[in-house]
Design a protein that fits this description.
By secondary structure, the chain is α/β, with parallel strands linked by helices. It contains 13 helices and 13 strands. The structure holds 2-phosphoglycolic acid and zinc ion. It is found in: Cytoplasm; Secreted; Cell surface.
């Protein structure tokens, strides 16, 4: 039984309003959630309910979403028995009744779903990752993908590609993977400073230097990995990109990179060249979300050599992922709870991917809180990949700290990429 459901407007890491949700069960167990929020959002994500009152927080307030939780949603959930998180999520889906959660707000539904998951785990005396783990998978410690350099919508520099990450795939353990991320990040900062470049950070905590070409960033990353005493290689410290290509595609279909106009096939050849010269192992959103032809070509050209992750193109939506799988789009999916709008739909999306041999990377949003739910989700689902931003800033490191904590408690959990 849910006896209390609370919601209030708090701030995310960008200083924008978001939701804090608390739930209390009849036995006294409680759960909390802080709702993440993206900047470069996909067209088919669950939509956030925002106040739209331009006189307050530039319209970004979430007091209406909070009122949905304490009003409509609490009214539906209170005073009756719930036998599973899936039942609660199903009630939220039915109560909302829209394909994109626009009536209740995906921010409201995901906050309630996450908080309920925590409360039920607590009621069972389980860790959240234990509670979330499907019986068919083996939990494991995921390879962290640390944001090192930011561009696109996450920084005010001239870089078109949104994220340049490093992934310590060959690290012997979670703790050593975090150490590699931290040490390389520190060396990168020092190298940038020595070169007279800005070391301010983008929204995910990666540096936002005044580079314009992807190659300049990759060269700087290679040097930082090397200077920090690590080996830059696809099976050691690998590089991962999230160009977020939807953001640099013109209305006429051309992609704009470092001042040049590229056709879809030319952009694909740029990726092929970069992957030949640098130890890139994964590219997310290499093509725009509405460029079906580009995605098909990209997957055909590079899908054997590289992990190709669909973020905007899939939106953690099981129905959309199913279409993508049928159309041979990408070979992996980014997983964001607030794109789906409930924890159950997130788990369904992950299960669908697993069944079809699509890899999964659990991800933060560029707007985050100190909620570490996604660290638990990544371990629970055994997906082997996690993207949580730079190894710096409280809202990012709390996730990595939680991963280290779980690894310390459970040294029997394997670290590394999952078999596909
Ligand atoms: P977002 O960016 O949270 O701003 O959407 C993250 C991503 O594109 O992966
Ligand atoms: Zn992305």
């Amino acid at each position: 039984h849910i006896i209390d459901l609370g919601a209030m407007q708090i701030l995310d890491s960008r200083g924008r309003p978001t939701l804090s949700v608390t739930v209390t069960l009849a036995g006294g167990a409680t759960g909390w959630a802080g709702v993440p929020s993206g900047a470069s959002t996909g067209a088919r994500e669950a939509v956030e309910l925002r106040d739209g009152d331009s006189g307050r927080y530039a319209g970004a307030g979430v007091t209406r979403a909070a009122a949905r939780i304490t009003g409509t949603i609490f009214h539906r959930l209170k005073g009756r028995p719930w036998y599973s998180l899936a039942d609660v999520d199903q009630a939220l889906i039915e109560l909302d009744g829209t394909p994109d959660k626009s009536r209740l707000g995906g921010n409201a539904t995901v906050g309630v779903s996450m908080a309920v998951a925590r409360a039920v785990a607590a009621a069972h005396g389980q860790q959240l990752w234990e509670f979330l783990s499907p019986s068919t998978v083996r939990p494991r410690m995921p390879v962290p993908h640390f944001n090192m350099v930011s561009g696109g919508m996450h920084a005010s520099n001239q870089l078109d590609f949104q994220e340049f990450m490093i992934a310590p795939i060959g690290a012997p353990s979670m703790a050593e993977a975090v150490r590699a991320g931290v040490e390389i990040y520190a060396v990168l900062r020092a190298n940038l400073a020595a070169a007279g470049r800005p070391t301010g950070q983008g929204d995910d905590g990666g540096f936002a230097p005044d580079f314009t070409r992807p190659r300049e960033v990759l060269t700087a990353l290679m040097r930082a990995i090397d200077d920090a005493g690590y080996t830059a290689a696809r099976d050691q410290v690998a590089i991962a990109l999230d160009p977020a290509a939807t953001r640099f595609r013109d209305a006429d279909g051309a992609y704009r990179v470092a001042g040049e106009r590229l056709s879809g096939p030319e952009l694909i050849e740029l990726y092929a060249d970069l992957a030949a010269d640098f130890p890139i192992w994964s590219i997310e959103d290499g093509m725009a979300e509405d460029d079906a032809d580009g995605w098909r070509r990209l997957t055909e050209r590079l899908g054997e050599r590289l992990q190709l992750v669909g973020d905007d193109v899939f939106c953690t939506n099981p129905a959309v992922i199913e279409q993508g799988i049928a159309g041979a789009v990408a070979n992996a999916a980014l997983i964001k709870v607030n794109q789906a709008g409930t924890v159950t739909e997130t788990l369904q999306a992950m299960d669908l991917c697993r069944k079809h041999g699509y890899a999964r990377m659990v991800s933060h949003r560029s707007g985050e809180t100190v909620d570490d739910f996604i660290a638990e989700l990544a371990v629970a689902t055994g997906c082997g990949q996690f993207k949580g931003g730079a190894p710096a800033r409280g809202e990012r490191v709390i996730k990595y700290n939680r991963l280290m904590h779980i690894a310390a408690q459970r040294p029997d959990l394997p670290y590394g990429l999952a078999d596909r």
